[in-house]
Amino acid sequence: MRPIAYERQVKTMWYDGIFESLLALRDEERALQMSAYMRNQFPFLGITTIPRKAAYKKFLATAKKEKRVDFDFVDQCFERVEREFQYAGVDYLLAVQDCLGPEDLAKLKQYIQTKSWWDTVDGLDGVVGSIVQRYPECKPILLEWSVADDIWLRRVAIDHQLGFKEKTDTDLLAEIIKNNLNQKEFFINKAIGWSLRDFSKTNPDWVRTFLSLHKDGLSNLSIREGSKYV
């Protein structure tokens, strides 16, 4: 009988190459610069976006064809120290997002709340948005997140409809933003501005009216960002 460790190694063989490829690209000098840019919250390997994504492009293409989600891989990405591994996990989830459903929101919530910062959270809001767009019954969960103590869950709730254009649920967008009026938190106010600015490209009149109705509760940052195209 093969040892359990051996069985696990065989099962996860497909993504071992991702970790090896990223480690081979380590650049210590750039790693210090990238960490400083992120306020020294996370250590980095020192790999910029283009070579990082190139390192695992073929692996993600293969994984996408399998029509399943390997959360063991994403777990390992979030357990590893350097930030590029978390980026790989988020990119993987984006690649297989069509395979995710309502039952996976709890797992995504875990990733949002693990090593949280805007760089990973803003990638995950697209994954969450994909689920909500395909399964509208999940909208109440985003309303719950919009009043959570965790600012990152609230940020995802605010921005999960980015790119929805004419499919944007304006009632949901309005309620979520109204749940976050009169805030002093930069990342919340920035998210509100982005959500309004993005939708203004599709329906500037709606955004203009919303800004007018709620100007007393919106921060200057939210108003400045949200009114950029109106």
Overview of the molecule:
This protein has 230 residues and is mostly helical. 66% of the residues lie in helices and 0% in strands. It is built from 14 helices and no strands. α12 packs antiparallel against α13. The longest helix is centred in the first third of the chain and has 17 residues, at 49-65. The N and C termini lie far apart (67 Å). It comes from Trichococcus patagoniensis.
List keywords for this structure.
230 residues; 14 helices; globular
Helix content, binned percent: 55-70%
Overall shape: globular
**Tally of individual helices:** 14
Strand content: under 5%
Mean pLDDT comes to: 94
Tell me the series of helices and strands, N- to C-terminal.
HHHHHHHHHHHHHH
What is the distance, rounded to the nearest whole angstrom, between the alpha carbons of the first and last residues? Answer: 67 Å
* E-strand count: 0
Quaternary class:
single chain
Short description:
Helices cover 66% and strands 0% of the residues. The protein has helices at 4-11, 13-24, 28-37, 49-65, 71-79, 83-95, 105-112, 118-134, 139-145, 151-159, 170-178, 186-200, 204-213, 220-226.
What is the fold's blueprint, element by element?
Elements (H helix, E strand, L loop, with lengths): L3 H8 L1 H12 L3 H10 L11 H17 L5 H9 L3 H13 L9 H8 L5 H17 L4 H7 L5 H9 L10 H9 L7 H15 L3 H10 L6 H7 L4
Helix pairs in contact: 2-4, 4-6, 5-6, 6-8, 7-8, 8-10, 10-12, 12-13, 12-14
